[in-house]
Amino acid sequence: MPKQKKNVVFKLGELFCGPGGIALGALSALAETKGSHYRIEHAWASDYDKDTCDTYKKKGLS
pLDDT averaged over the chain? Predict the structure, then answer.
């Protein structure tokens, strides 16, 4: 009987996220090992600077 593949999803939360560079990289990352797939899903982000938040939104991360 073949082994069943496992899909693992990690949740990303960011405090003082800045313009979203870490989120952009994390959401682009995919890994497969021993038949399992790993990925990151965005859960939440926080920052206090209006311009930074606007940039974050324009990247489609929120």
Answer: 86
